[in-house]
Structure formats: structure tokens, C-alpha cells
């Protein structure tokens, strides 16, 4: 009986020692309760507890990545969309995370969903599409203010996906196409305007220096004579023909009086 009692006593001692020793990892903290009252956060390393009197609850201090489920909401300009997001947060005060909220992960998730619907409902669709960084900052600030009493720091919130109705997608595609056509017409008109300015400047230079027209004419002839496989009809400038026409007219006027005098002499 004595050996049996000793064995039981040793087992009880080992059990008490085992319940009194806890190991806390580097990324964890242990919130210790003594007779129901918070003593503080301990760790990392080896923690000794008073058996039966003290108990410990571990809290993970690493950054937690949480997906916010898709929320169907209506924007400020009455467009129904589905939007989901991702939230990055971590516990910075283990005591508050254990004492002030029952389940800080679930509470943060619910708060993130509610805040996402609220922020999107206050914004217009164009603002959500064009100013996503600003919307993300507003979400992060609002969620962080809500989780601050729980000892949680929200470091980043990102809107990950935005689902639009099919009718709205077609309308946006038509709008984008019209915008592209408008830009193309403006660019084309601008090119025509610049080309007209260059042509007007070239015309002024040729007017001041008539020899430039002859040089340009000879250059064009040189360019078109390189291809011998086709027949090219090139108009002859009137500036080159005018001197010959004048000479022909002057010669004709001189010949007509002479012919008239000969006829007159014959009649006499």
C-alpha cells in the first residue's frame, strides 16, 4: 500500500508540474488570469503558472489575412454592385483582445463587412473605379477605429474584386468606345491643322523664292523615274510652258502684217 500511495503521489506531483509549465512561442503572448483576474501578458519562452489558481490563454501576434465575403450593395448613384476585399490586421494588445471581445477575428470580420457596405454606399461608381486607393484608405481608417478598443491594428485594406451588372458593363464599353473615337477625331483634326500650317509656310517660301518651285519639280521627276515598271502621267507646270507660248504669240503677230502687205501688192 505504501508503494501504491507513493506512485499516486508522484503522479499527482508530475501532473501539477505539467499544468504549471507552459511554453509560449516567439510570435505568441500568454494572457494570465489569477482567480479570474487578469495578471498580464507573458512570453515568449517558458512560463510557470500556479496550479489551479492561474490559467493562461495564448494570443497570436502575427499578421492575419482575412477575406471579406462579397457584399452586394448600392452605390450613391444607384448602381447595384458586388464587391469583396481583403483585410490585414494583427493584435498589438493581447490583454484587450482577450478581455474586451469574445472572438476578435470574427468581430473584425463582421465589422469589415459592415464598413465595406457603408463606404461603398457613400461613394459613386466612377469614384470607386478611378479612386480605389482613396477608398482603400477610407476603409482602413474606419475599420482601424472600430477595432482599436480590441487591441487590434488594421494595417491594410484592399478592394480585390468588383462585379458589375451586364447592362452596366455594356454601357461602360459603349462609353469607352465613344471616348476613343472622340480622341481619334481630335488627333486627326490636329494633324490636318498642323499639315495645313506647314503647307502654308512652304507656299510662302516658294512665293518669295520662285526657283524653289523648279527645284521641287526636278526633285519630283527624279523620284518618279526610279520606278520603270509603271507609267506615270506627270502634269507640266505652266511656268515652264508660258515663255514658249509668249514666243509663239509674238512670232505669229509679226508674220500676219507681212502676209497682208503681200496680198495688197498683188491686188494693185
Textual characterization of the structure:
With 268 residues, this protein is α+β, with helices and mostly antiparallel strands. It is rod-shaped and about 160 Å long. The model is unreliable at 258-268 (pLDDT under 50). It folds into three domains: 9-59; 64-164, 2-Layer Sandwich (Tetrahydropterin Synthase, Chain A), CATH 3.30.479; 167-229. It is 57% helix and 24% strand. The strands form three sheets. It has a three-stranded antiparallel beta sheet. Strands 6-7-8 form a three-stranded antiparallel beta sheet. β6 (64-74) and β7 (80-91) form a beta hairpin.
Keywords:
268 residues; alpha+beta; Tetrahydropterin Synthase, Chain A; 3 domains; three-stranded antiparallel β-sheet; disordered C terminus
Could you give the topology of this structure?
Layout: H1 2-20, E1 21-24, E2 28-34, E3 37-42, E4 45-48, E5 54-60, E6 64-74, E7 80-91, H2 94-99, H3 104-121, H4 125-130, H5 132-147, E8 152-163, H6 166-208, H7 211-224, H8 238-267
Antiparallel strand pairs: 1-4, 2-3, 2-5, 6-7, 7-8
End-to-end separation: 184 Å
**Low-confidence regions:** 258-268
CATH topology of the largest domain: Tetrahydropterin Synthase, Chain A
How many beta-strand runs? 8
Give the number of domains. 3
What average pLDDT do the residues reach?
83
CATH arch. level architecture of the largest domain: 2-Layer Sandwich
Radius of gyration: 47 Å
Helix content: 55-70%
Taken in chain order, the helices and strands follow as HEEEEEEEHHHHEHHH
**How does the overall form come out from the CA principal axes?**
rod-shaped
Instruction: Give the number of helices.
Output: 8
Share of residues in strands: 15-25%
**Broad structural category:** alpha+beta
Spatial strand sequence of the major β-sheet: 3-2-5
Amino acid at each position: 500500500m505504501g508503494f501504491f500511495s507513493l506512485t499516486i503521489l508522484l503522479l499527482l506531483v508530475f501532473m501539477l508540474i505539467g499544468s504549471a509549465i507552459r511554453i509560449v512561442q516567439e510570435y505568441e503572448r500568454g494572457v494570465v488570469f489569477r482567480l479570474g483576474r487578469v495578471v498580464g501578458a507573458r512570453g515568449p519562452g517558458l512560463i510557470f503558472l500556479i496550479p489551479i489558481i492561474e490559467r493562461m490563454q495564448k494570443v497570436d501576434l502575427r499578421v492575419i489575412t482575412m477575406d471579406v465575403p462579397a457584399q452586394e450593395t448600392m452605390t450613391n448613384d444607384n448602381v447595384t454592385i458586388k464587391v469583396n476585399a481583403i483585410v490585414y490586421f494583427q493584435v498589438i494588445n493581447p490583454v484587450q483582445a482577450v478581455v474586451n471581445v469574445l472572438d476578435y477575428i470574427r468581430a473584425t470580420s463582421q465589422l469589415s463587412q459592415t464598413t465595406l457596405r457603408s463606404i461603398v454606399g457613400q461613394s459613386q461608381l466612377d469614384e470607386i473605379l478611378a479612386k480605389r486607393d482613396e477608398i482603400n484608405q477610407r476603409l482602413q481608417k474606419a475599420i482601424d477605429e472600430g477595432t482599436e478598443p480590441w487591441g487590434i491594428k488594421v494595417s491594410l485594406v484592399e478592394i480585390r474584386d468588383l462585379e458589375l451588372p451586364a447592362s452596366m458593363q455594356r454601357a461602360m464599353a459603349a462609353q469607352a468606345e465613344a471616348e476613343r473615337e472622340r480622341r481619334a477625331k481630335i488627333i486627326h483634326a490636329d494633324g490636318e491643322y498642323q499639315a495645313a500650317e506647314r503647307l502654308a509656310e512652304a507656299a510662302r517660301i516658294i512665293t518669295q523664292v520662285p526657283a524653289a518651285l523648279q527645284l521641287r519639280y526636278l526633285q519630283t521627276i527624279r523620284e518618279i523615274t526610279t520606278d520603270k515598271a509603271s507609267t506615270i502621267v506627270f502634269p507640266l507646270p505652266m511656268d515652264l510652258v508660258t515663255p514658249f507660248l509668249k514666243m509663239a504669240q509674238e512670232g505669229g503677230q509679226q508674220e500676219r502684217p507681212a502676209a497682208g502687205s503681200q496680198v495688197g501688192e498683188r491686188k494693185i
